[in-house]
Amino acid sequence: MPTILGQNQYGKAENRVVKITREGDTHHIKDLNVSVALSGDLDEVHYSGSNAHVLPTDTTKNTVFAFAKEHGIESAEAFGILLARHFVDSCEPIRTARIRVEEYTWDRIATSDANSRFIGADEVQHSFVRQGQETRTAQITYDGENVEVLSGLKGLTVLNSTNSEFWGYIKDRYTTLREDYDRILATEVTSVWRHNWTGAEGVRTPNWEKSYAQSKKHMLQAFAETYSLSLQQTLYQMGARAINSRPEIDEIRFSMPNKHHFKVDLEPFGMKNEAADGAVYLAADRPYGLIEATVLRDGAEARIPFDMTNL
Ligand SMILES: O=c1[nH]c(=O)c2[nH]c(=O)[nH]c2[nH]1
């Protein structure tokens, strides 16, 4: 035979596992991207196609989710060690397991004192904003008469690990989605807002830095504090809160992908996976629902383009 097999490895890459742990009303989140690569006595599957030594990549994926539920995720390292040992120690042909983990870290969203439901706590215990700064955007247009200032942000990723439901929707012959009374709500906010300042003489220029910081704060707090029956409702609350709190803003538009987190079915492994006990979720990246809408001050003109994601 003129060829021989060299180094080889296989496994399921990029298992996006999210584990919520509930401690009363305080939730903890671990959000990992886990890639499994196994190697060992695997010549035959390459030479002849015999799968006798192959632990399916699908099984390695299931193991990641089942282990998250069974053992929790203490740290990326501890979780990786647990998995690596398992594959090698329980499966004879597998001699080496390499587990790679990326961890996405989340901060808690600070609450507003004004919201009585959360008085006493500094943070909403189930609301998170992903670490890493969002990108701030601005577009200024001047036609010789009026200045129009659009400010915005993109890449602001937020998550509520409870207080989100989705039910009561239209059901037709193609509907398979189950109604959900306790789901994760997560989105990556793109938002553009229009100031009513036009540069007219004698009208005070807004403090752009303060306006941005406050607008973002109000949007985050509305996200955290809204008991959500749909992402559409949450979006509207975020816009309404920003406009009601910031007199300089007349219009705000959002583009918000629904970053789906699917509860993993662990029944085949004899495990329950209920939100109430702290569940394990698959964070799916596509396809995703895309929810977009404008919120206006009553009487204001709608001027922000519908497709403003590349402003
Ligand atoms: O908040 C939601 N809004 C929807 O319109 C929708 N559609 C869907 O399948 N899931 C969701 N969630």
Automatic annotation (TrEMBL):
Belongs to the uricase family. Catalyzes the oxidation of uric acid to 5-hydroxyisourate, which is further processed to form (S)-allantoin. It catalyses: urate + O2 + H2O = 5-hydroxyisourate + H2O2. Pathway: Purine metabolism; urate degradation; (S)-allantoin from urate: step 1/3. This is Uricase. Keywords: Oxidoreductase, Purine metabolism. The keyword Ion transport does not apply. Its EC number is 1.7.3.3. It comes from Streptomyces iconiensis. It comes from the Bacteria. Gene3D superfamilies: Urate Oxidase (3.10.270.10).
